[in-house]
Design goal:
With about 300 residues, the protein is mainly alpha-helical. It has 13 helices and no strands. This is Heat shock factor 2-binding protein isoform X4. It comes from Danio rerio (Zebrafish). Keywords: Stress response.
Length: about 300
């Protein structure tokens, strides 16, 4: 054994082991290089794909801006066209014959539905402080102003009032709600037209009944009588007068009037420099006081 297992054999065995370890290390390094090369290839492909996507996004963004510009142009054109057409219709609807022709056409209900939706959209955007505010001369304002004017003219004619009182409750309710949303001093012309339409509708018995039964009516009147515009206050008083002069309506509202209606505001309007507003406020106050006293006496009896 000592002659067989000598130092040379031991050295040879150590060298073989070292070679095996070195070979294993080389193989591992080769595998890692291949892995790194594979990862690098995937990274390059991902970078290229990312760059391509960036280019595509830039192109899409440019197209989006162009589409937005085109949509804005189309919106401006449609709004200007709608404002022009509705202004012409507003003017034409001042004649009773035109209202009768509109009713005979059978499309009035669709028109009133569109008018209500347009008014609602415009005013809700108006009260949204985050949105840019419209000017009094904007096409949008002229559009809704003309729509409200057409509705007012329809309500000024007997057959038109009949239609509104029976088939346009949604529009009437929407107008009452929207008047409550609008801040004092904002777009007074639009408020005046809607109030005139509501006043005209109350000439019809069914219209008067529908409007007087709305729970938001008295709070709305309190809100509108605080408006700095005298014409808004005047039309609000006229609408109020149409309610309190009806004997069948006043008893149902007397309690709410006593509880929450600010007579002091009407007293203040009596001293207004606006002659028509001053006279109407005086008449409304007298009618209201008389109506409340008469109702009290009726209850006592």
């Amino acid at each position: 054994m000592p002659k067989v297992i000598n130092s040379d054999l031991i050295d040879t065995i150590h060298e073989e082991r070292s070679l095996d370890a070195f070979q294993e290390l080389c193989d591992r390094e080769q595998q890692e290089r291949e892995n790194c090369l594979h990862i690098q290839t995937r990274l390059d492909a991902a970078l290229n794909e990312c760059q391509n996507e960036k280019q595509e996004k830039l192109v899409l963004k440019q197209q989006l801006w162009e589409c937005r510009g085109q949509l804005q142009q189309q919106k401006d054109f449609c709004t200007e066209l709608g404002a022009s057409c509705c202004t012409l219709l507003w003017s034409a609807s001042q004649k009773e014959e035109a209202i009768r022709d509109i009713l005979a056409n059978g499309k009035l209900e669709d028109f009133l539905s569109i008018a209500g939706q347009t008014l609602e959209t415009f005013i809700k955007l108006l009260v949204d402080e985050a949105k840019p505010q419209q000017s009094d001369n904007s096409h949008e304002h002229n559009f809704v102003l003309a729509l409200a004017g057409v509705v007012t003219n329809i309500a000024a004619v007997s057959c038109g009032r009949d239609f509104l009182s029976s088939s346009a409750h949604i529009l009437l309710g929407t107008m009452l709600q929207l008047l409550g949303l609008m801040k004092p001093g904002v777009f007074p012309k639009l408020k005046v037209l809607m109030l005139m339409a509501l006043y005209n509708t109350t000439i019809n018995v069914n219209g008067l009944k529908f409007i007087s039964e709305r729970p938001e009516l008295l709070p709305l009147m309190c809100h509108l009588l605080e408006d700095p515009d005298p014409e808004v206050c005047l039309q609000s008083l006229r609408l109020l007068q149409s309610l309190i002069l009806e004997r069948e309506i006043m008893p149902g509202m007397a309690t709410d009037f006593r509880r929450s209606f600010p007579l002091s505001r009407i007293n203040h309007l009596v001293s207004s420099c606006h002659p028509t507003l001053k006279q109407t406020a005086q008449e409304t106050l007298e009618d209201l006081i008389y109506g409340l006293k008469h109702q009290t006496l009726h209850l006592n009896c």
